[in-house]
Amino acid sequence: MWVVDKYIDYVKEQTIEDPRKSWGKMLLGFQANKVRTKILPKKNLAKGYQKLEAMMMSFVADALCQPDSYVWGNIFSPCELIRCFGLKTLSIECLSCYLSGYHLEDYFIDYAQNTGIAPTLCSYHKTFVGAIDSDAVPVPDYAVTTSLSCDGNLNTFRYLEKKKGVPFTFLDVPYGDDGASVEYLAEQLREFAHELEERFAVRFDEEKLKESLRIENETRKELVEFFRLQSEHYYPGELISHLYMMMGMHLLIGTQEFLDLIRFMNEDIQTYPKFEGKKILWVHLLPFYQESLQKCFNTNQNYQIIASDIILDSAEKLDPERPFHSLARKIIHNIYNGSYSHRASMIGKLCDTLHPDAVIQFCHWGCKQSSGGSILLKEEMQKKGIPMLILDGDGIDKRNSHDGQIKTRLEAFLEMLDVEEETR
């Protein structure tokens, strides 16, 4: 749509010219896209993925238009607890993806690096820091982050507190899952709830949290069923559809709205034809902009991503009667917490459930954990006889990804899968 492309170019030009005056224009674009996804959904997508895109566009657009309605977080922040205070959680990683919709990631990354941010910092974080430092994006009243997965979280939120005065809570997640470790994190969550009470003058209602955890249990069960069905049926989606699902599972988990959507998808997918192609389990981040990957996985009946480890990163069944302990156990048992051997083992169990034909791991530039542990996962997949491809690139900064190399390696890998099928 040329009108959309023109507006994206216009917003980028205006932001580079004067970042302080660009926020209203960005919001207008987000709101317009929210309306577009509702009344003019992409025709080539399955109905469930159409609804998912509309839901996530509405969630982000509506929150950003109400500065008092949200707090910043990373994608592993406890949105269930934050929601008890009438607040939404906007992760800085997801917001960076939305900013890249205006093709502004390169400008914000350069801005951050020119102010002294290390080039080795994750590009999602650099995009966000550049957007804040340039005054293109206003700051909220509060933020929260965890130590989970990314070692850049604490430094990024400390920097934002120092530069923009945004106070934040840091949840220190232990590696151990013994009773003392669970209690240690549960106590931090209790203190966090008390801090939210004080800051936002809203009394904490534990019953709300319990109900959210009940819904979350049901949602996770329904999602596992959807992944299973997606290995049996062709359910046309796009690379970005899986990014929206990841956002939903980390920002809307525990809401009736999101549970109803997954239930709809489980019913809807059964009306679609049988899937005869190759089933792919995706590991780590999704470079939704990558042209070669889009060509391969966007509505392709030959190759379908059936699940991603970052979408179902916790299989913990929660006990609503012990909400703080349950949330603590969920966070500690996250697939991204602890050693990479733990993560490789968890992905192996996911393979035992979903039986993918192949695994693709995307090693995001700047993410040391992913790159450093990829060989451990490959060894785990070799034990199970599952072919695995390791791709290097950048989840958001196009300049750090070489589409030609990705295209060559991906095509060779998929061709190998097809040849193996023919020789059986």
Automatic annotation (TrEMBL):
Essential cofactor(s): [4Fe-4S] cluster
The transmembrane segments are: none
Q: Which PANTHER family match?
A: 2-HYDROXYACYL-COA DEHYDRATASE,D-COMPONENT, 2-HYDROXYGLUTARYL-COA DEHYDRATASE, D-COMPONENT-RELATED
Answer yes or no on keyword Hydrolase: no
Keywords, A to Z, come to: Iron, Iron-sulfur, Metal-binding
Classification from the root reads: Bacteria, Bacillati, Bacillota, Clostridia, Eubacteriales
Q: Name one GO molecular function term.
A: hydro-lyase activity
Q: Which family does it belong to?
A: Belongs to the FldB/FldC dehydratase alpha/beta subunit family.
Tell me the domain of life.
Bacteria
Tell me the protein's name.
Answer: 2-hydroxyacyl-CoA dehydratase
Gene3D superfamilies, sorted: 3.40.50.11890, 3.40.50.11900
